[in-house]
Design goal:
alpha/beta, D-Maltodextrin-Binding Protein, domain 2, single chain, five-stranded mixed beta sheet, seven-stranded mixed beta sheet, 2 domains, globular
Length: 354
């Protein structure tokens, strides 16, 4: 297992990245004037997204981006990634401005020197992400996985939770971990190549048709292993266009508010966008904690311009663990994690939303 992760660390920023590009079909606009050394606005912005039921999916489906960005004439492109590993490769090549990813990949982004910063938490993960096994197997506990093959996307939040679950059960060296993208996990599951996988929705829902959950990320969070999906931005872009970043955060906040105030309505929007059943969307969305901008800038999470939040310490703990497992060659110090998180754009977005 250690050899596999060391090899991954060497290749994770290399290789050919295949992107699924979705043009939003509308121009973008921001409220207020762009600040920074260059007051001209970009002709287009590239957003790396995950096709998952989150605030961004609602914002896209309800054309909230148009509300904020249409008048300025900036084209927006939504680029679909299967995982944060792919998004980090795109950041490294300079081909995207924003990207969604699990906080473990945000840790990797900082540790590998990518010029990015964390500006938002989409949701804190719970039942939306889990370790599942075949119902037909004789696996009823984590200890029963000894000698088995387990698939998960390496460097993901699922990978982090799985490694900790295996370590706590004392069988981390008794399993074979397979690095697979979510679509490949579903295919391998259906072929019978694997009996267990730690993944997230919607792939989790597909394998649970004939599977059962052994442990989920909410249970892992209760044991101290908190995971979350985050949003990163290129620092140079943010420095040049801080108003664009704040307006983008406002879009996400509006999408989140729709679900928090009316879960059924939010689920219907997500279902239509992702082409899934509304009830499935609702169950997936209920498996995570959706936070308001005001909650995110509290000490419990990202903190604010005057104080550091607890999430910076969670990220440092995550980095320490990944390094112990041989996945990271360098662990940033706590101050680097403190500086990596920039809540100022959320504070500005709150002003925009008033």
């Amino acid at each position: 297992m250690r050899k596999s992760m060391k090899a991954l660390a060497l290749i994770m920023l290399s290789g050919v990245l295949v992107l699924s590009l979705i043009g939003c079909g509308n121009n973008l606009n921001v409220s207020g004037q762009a600040k920074g050394p260059n007051t001209s606005l970009p002709k287009q912005i590239n957003f790396g997204i995950l096709r998952v039921p989150n605030d961004e999916t609602i914002a896209i489906s309800q054309k909230i981006f148009d509300k904020y960005f249409t008048e300025k004439g900036i084209k927006c492109n939504f680029i679909v990634f299967d995982s944060g590993v792919e998004a980090n490769k795109a950041f490294a090549s300079g081909s995207i401005d924003f990207a969604s990813m699990g906080h473990t990949n945000a840790v990797v982004a900082l540790a590998t020197g990518l010029d990015v910063e964390l500006i938002w938490i989409h949701e804190v993960l719970g039942e939306i992400e889990a370790l599942a096994v075949k119902k037909s197997s004789n696996i009823n506990s984590i200890e029963d996985l000894a000698g088995k093959k387990i698939a998960t996307p390496f460097a993901s939040t699922s990978h982090y939770s799985l490694l900790n679950a295996l370590k706590n059960a004392g069988i981390e060296d008794q399993v074979e971990l397979l690095d697979m993208q979510t679509v490949d996990i579903v295919a391998a599951w259906e072929r019978g190549d694997i009996e267990a996988a730690y993944t997230w929705q919607p792939s989790l829902g597909k394998i649970l048709k004939d599977g059962k959950v052994i442990i989920n990320s909410e249970e892992m969070a209760n044991q101290g292993y908190v995971t979350a999906n985050t949003k990163l931005v290129r620092k140079k872009f943010a420095e040049q266009y801080p108003d664009l970043v704040a307006s983008f955060i406002a879009c996400l906040a509006e999408g989140s508010k729709i679900y928090r105030e009316n879960p059924n309505e939010g689920a219907s929007f997500v279902a239509k966008e992702l082409q899934i059943e509304t009830q499935d969307a609702l169950e997936q969305m209920q498996g995570a904690i959706w936070l308001s901008p005001e909650e995110l800038i509290k000490e419990q999470y990202l903190g604010n311009s005057n104080s550091t939040g607890n999430f910076a310490m969670i990220m440092k703990d995550t980095a320490d663990f990944l390094a112990q497992q041989g996945f990271l060659n360098k662990v940033p110090i706590q101050e680097e994690f403190n500086n990596f998180i920039n809540p100022s754009y959320i504070e500005e977005a709150i002003k925009i939303l008033k």
